[in-house]
Amino acid sequence: MIKPWKQRAVRMQSAVGIDISDGSLELAKIIFENGIPRLTNHSRIELPAATIVNGILIDESTVFHAIRELCAAGHIDPHGQPVLTALPDQQVVVRIIEIADLAQHSYEELADRAREASIPASRGITSPVMQWHAWRTNGKRGALAIFTTSRLYIEQWRAFFEQHHMRLESVEMESLALARAVLPSVPAGHRIALLDMGYRATALAVFEGSGLVFSLVIPGGMASINAARATNHATSTEQIQHRHDHYTGADGELIQRILVQQLTAARTALVDNNCVPQKLYLTGGGSLLPEAAQRIASIMSVPTVAARLTPSSGGYAMHTVHAQLTPSEQHLYAGAIGIALKGRDPHTSQTGINFLNAE
Length: 359
Known about the structure:
Structural class: alpha/beta
Shape: globular
Helix content: 25-40%
Radius of gyration: 20 Å
């Protein structure tokens, strides 16, 4: 019998998730009523491009004031407030090991194997810390996922929230939080994927059963597209960022060319690793691009849809949260909601981890 992986107790009657990305902050507060999540507060603020760079906090003052604005807009008193957040995928090294017969391995054996496997993954990482998760994929087969990051990334946010009188309860990986909010249950033997097109990078994560089986970060993201469009229109990238709905025919050709450059290698990696999914869910700024799902489906050769909150995702009845938000709001707040959902139970399906309790 496999014991639950070691975690901090994060179970709450309510939880505040703050999704921290290079271009924006989103906050979602969820109250759990008889186990059913209800979204009570949500707010969002955009950040100047240089405030956070690839997950590294550059301008602490701007982020502090932005979080204060988020809390004020969401009618939340930040003083003493417990919060949960996530690291961007580019700050987490993931290694997946297949297990032929999962039931034959004890918790201690899997923990030892995870520690051994994390050693090569941690090379080049300052002060590495590790979390792991094991689950059954199909029949007796299982998988062991090892997540390694730098303690510096964790302490950056722990110190930030502590300095501003907020209590950080959980730090996980962004794609795991998104999966909890937007992916439906994955039948055994099937794979579905998230493609999260962020500001400076695009994260591809493939899930099978209740776990992550493939992870890839592709440099570029929306920043590359915005820069190219700004050149085409002889304007600044700041102006382009606020013109989501103003695309020309030339923009379409440019977007297609950049997406092909960014995603062709990702398609090859999926094939080479035998991880081609049956369906792909699109999140992040890329889902706002014209004909985004059709373009990406053509490049990746995988049916693609814009992700929305799934009414029964993450093992929760999400009907109430789903009904409270418009489709565009669901796109914006999916990360924050996925992070907040972790507050109810750290052992959710879709692979919950907590780096605050890492080895």
